[in-house]
Write a structure and sequence with these properties.
240 residues; mainly alpha; three-stranded antiparallel β-sheet; globular
Length: 240
């Protein structure tokens, strides 16, 4: 009885997650032309970024259980359904339509395969080495100073430490525009996660473990409302 709603949801997710033109215009030149075109060619993209995941799903079906199922992946992007953009939700959901993948041997295998390539091309990978600050000269980043005093210079400096660490800790504050500081304050911090890794003897088949994620979301079975569940947890984490 909910087939039409599910099919519409899948179609919307696939459509909304196709954002190539929006991001291509971010790097297009000349910049003035990209800015002129973006509001028109990305009109539908902007429409869906302004709608929340909950708003879109509630517009598809009255079935509370189906709503809960379709919104259950909100944990992947860390915002409650009534605050998260449907674009973000669609991007995550679309990613899993063909199944999820995990490297054999764990995530460290990614680094193990990347490091030899980096080193063969003259690069170095430093571990347990903290950056103290980004070195600035004439308004541009030219290198980094490590906590042990070492200075490393490069024609291009890329920070993958996140917006808060980059602008609030690594960049000298005189180089951070007030407008950027204001936007960071408005953005706020994302939520934190606690991971527990459990090692088990035997293969998944021997332990009768299926290859899938299991999301346990203890919301009220009468309402099946994730936003209500999150608010209750924030008010009283011990008894929620």
């Amino acid at each position: 009885e909910e087939r039409a709603a599910i099919e519409k949801y899948v179609s919307l997710v696939q459509e909304v997650s196709q954002k190539d033109m929006f991001f291509n215009l971010k790097i297009a030149r000349p910049v003035w032309l990209a800015r002129l075109l973006n509001p028109y060619v990305s009109k539908r993209f902007f429409l869906n970024t302004r709608r929340t995941a909950r708003e879109v799903v509630e517009g598809l079906t009255e079935n509370k259980m189906l709503r809960a199922v379709l919104l259950a992946q909100y944990g992947d992007y860390s915002m409650s359904p009534n605050k998260s953009s449907f674009f973000m939700h669609a991007s995550v959901a679309n990613h899993y339509f063909n199944g999820g993948y995990y490297p054999r041997g764990g995530a460290t295998e990614i680094a193990k395969k990347m490091i030899p390539v980096i080193e063969r091309t003259g690069g170095r990978v430093l571990v347990r080495r903290a950056v103290e600050t980004i070195i600035m000269e004439q308004g541009r980043a030219v290198g980094v100073r490590m906590t042990n005093g070492d200075q490393i210079f490069a024609p291009q400096v890329i920070s993958a430490a996140g917006v808060f660490n980059t602008y609030n800790k690594l960049l000298p504050q005189e180089h951070v525009p007030a407008s950027i500081k204001s936007k960071i304050d408005q953005l706020g911090l994302s939520c934190s996660f606690v991971y527990l890794f459990v090692g088990m003897k035997g293969t998944p088949e021997e332990n009768n473990l299926r290859s899938s994620n299991i999301w346990h979301l203890p919301c009220d079975p009468k309402t099946l409302d994730y936003d209500e569940m999150i608010e209750a947890f924030r008010k009283d984490p011990l008894t929620a």
